[in-house]
Structures are given as structure tokens and as C-alpha cells.
Amino acid sequence: MNTLTLHLSHLDHNYTYLRSKILPKTQLVGVVKAAAYGSSSIAIAKRLVKLGVSYLAVAYVEEGEQLRNEGIKIPIMVFYPQINNLESLLTSCLEPCLYSQALMENFKSILLKKKIKQYPIHIKYNTGLNRLGFSPDQCDWVIEQIKNNCFKVESIYSHLAASEAKRPSSLCERQIELFKALKTKHEKLSDQPPKFHLLNSSGVFNYPEYQFDMVRCGIALHGFANHPHWEAELKPLGVLQSTISQIHQVKKGGFIGYDHGWKAPNDTKIATLPIGHADGIGRHYGHHKGSVLIHGKQAPIVGNVCMDLLMVDVTTVDCKEGETVEFFGHTKKASAFAQDGNSISYELLSSLGPRIKRVFKD
Fold it and tell me: Which of 37-72 are b and which e, b meaning 16 or more Cβ less than 10 Å from the residue's Cβ?
């Protein structure tokens, strides 16, 4: 019915290309949060392990537990651990990214209580994204805390707010200078020499001179990079297809869908597809904003997208019930389809629901 075909050979290509952009000594963290950007965290993680990533990274503890349950043994960073599941993090040998005083104090208390020493952690600083992270002003406090032998600091990092912005970017440069100052301070005052990292996917392309010891790549592994020139070097993994459930004729002046969402200006042929906003194709793609490809011809989405269905205008398309329809993949990139709905590839891909069957090809 609905399938997302994932070409793992494209993942191989993207990984190899990204590795060519960084130094051999620089480690690459494969980010597989949010079901590996809507694909399959398990399948993508296993492939990345074979390719040679140094670390995997997830958003939450539960995502890391799923990978451990599938036999993945390499280090896994948890970007956004919550205080209430720090103990379960220990059970699965996951490495927390500590970003606040409360989180660090709670985790320290747990480690001391359990008499655990040298547990691997990562320290996140907020240098300007203003989302999560220790303030640079808290650096001295952080350094005092990590002197305790219950901690082993594996890395210290931050996140650029607009790594894809055209250079020169005063905001990015300010973040970089802040991070460099933090790096210097930690190197001078810390007994344990940690790794440092700042760059995400776009940063690898835009600021390669600041790759430091590690880079974190997620969306670029899936073939997208927030800039057409960079994206041209990558291969998208996913092809999203559906099938035509029914074709019916609508007379001129007839209405299509909920709330009389669209009025046919002429006698019109409508195809209904078994996919909707519950599957990740949001209502913002309706009303001719999004379109699908049938036999090489574009068919616009008309009216309001429903929860389980949507309708396309196939008046000029020679097609039959049961035939395949493509949303993105072979001809149109997911980033271009997302743009039609005033969205981005990250949102579109990570929204694709579990009712869509994942099919893997090499």
C-alpha cells in the first residue's frame, strides 16, 4: 500500500563522502535519533556500525535501549537525558550528555550511591542556540564537578544555531569563539583530556576547519544538507510511494474532501490515495501545494488532506486504480516536496508514520 524504500548503498556513499570531508583522525558520530530521521534506527545504526562510525547518538534513553536490545555494542550518546530515567540509562550502558546543574548533580548522586567510577559522560554547552546546555559562565563549576572520579568526560561540545548560514556569519563566529575559549579552559584545568566537537551535518560542509576531534552527522547521511550545492554530492536514501485506491469523476462545481476543501472548476478526474496526515503527509500539503508523480506526470493534491487519505487531480494523467504513485525519491527529492508545503526535509522524513512499510535495498 504505502512503502518507504531505503537504499542502503546510498547510505554507504554518503558516509564515505562525509568521511572524505574530514580528517582521518576526526571521529564521526552517526545520529540515529527519531527512528533515524523517520527511516529505521535499528537498520541504519547496524549499517553505520559496519561502515565504521565511532559513536551513535540518540535523543532519548528509550531510543538507546532499543539499539542495545538489538545487539549494538558501540558507544551511544544520549543527547537529551531526563532526570527520571538516569538509572535506566546505566542499565543499558548509555552515555549521557549532561547539560544542566540539576542533571549533573542527580547523575553524580546516582553514581556515588552505586559506587560507580569513571562512567562516560559528555558535557553540552550553550553558546548561542539557547536550547539546552550549560552557560559558559558555569564552566568553572562544571570543571570542579568533573574532577570527581565517578565521571569520565568523553567529550565536550556545543551546537551552532545556523551552521548552514552564508559565511561570514557574525553569530556563528561568536559561537565558535566562545567554544574555543571553553575548549582552552577545559584543556588547562581538566585532568582528563576530552574530545571536543561543534559541527553537525551542515557544519561539516560550511566550517570544516572547526571539526576538532569529532563531528555529528544525521540528515546528511540520509542525503540532505540544507544547501543545493552540498546536497548535490549526496544520495537520498528514501523513496516514498503509495497506490491509487479509487478513481472517480467529479462534475464541474463539485466539492472534494472535508469542509468542501476544493471546488472543481471543470469536470475532473480524482484519484484517492491511502495515505494522510496520520502518516506524515500533513494538511499543509493540500490545496495544490504538494503534488505526486504518476507515470512521469505531476498530479496536485486537492482539498484538505485527511487523516488516512488524500486526493489528487489526475484529469490529465492516464492512470488506473492500483497503480503506483510517488511522493519523493527518484525524480523529486524529499527536500523539494517538503518545500512545497513550507516545511523542511527533517520534519517531513521524521513525521513518516509506522503504517508506512519500510523496505530495505542494498
Answer: bbbbbbbbbbbbbebebebbbbbbbebbbbbeeeeb
What are 221-252's pLDDT values in tens digits? 999 998 899 999 999 999 999 999 999 999 99
Query: Phi and psi of 13, rounded to 5°?
Result: -60, -45
CB-count burial class (<10 Å; 0-12, 13-18, 19+) for 275 = buried
**pLDDT one-digit tens code per residue, 111-138:** 999 999 999 999 999 999 999 999 999 9
- Would you say the pTM of this structure is higher than 0.90? yes
Start-to-end CA distance of the chain, whole Å, equals: 22
Query: How many residues does this entry show for the chain?
Result: 362
Contact 163, 200 (CB under 8 A): yes
- What is the rounded CA–CA span in Å between residue 141 and residue 330? 52
Structural domains present in the chain: 8-231 (3.20.20.10), 238-361 (2.40.37.10)
**What φ, ψ does residue 248 adopt, rounded to 5°?**
-140, 160
Contact predicate 331/297, CB 8 Å: no
CA atoms within 13 A on the CB side of 360: 12
Query: Which three cell numbers mark 271?
Result: 484519484
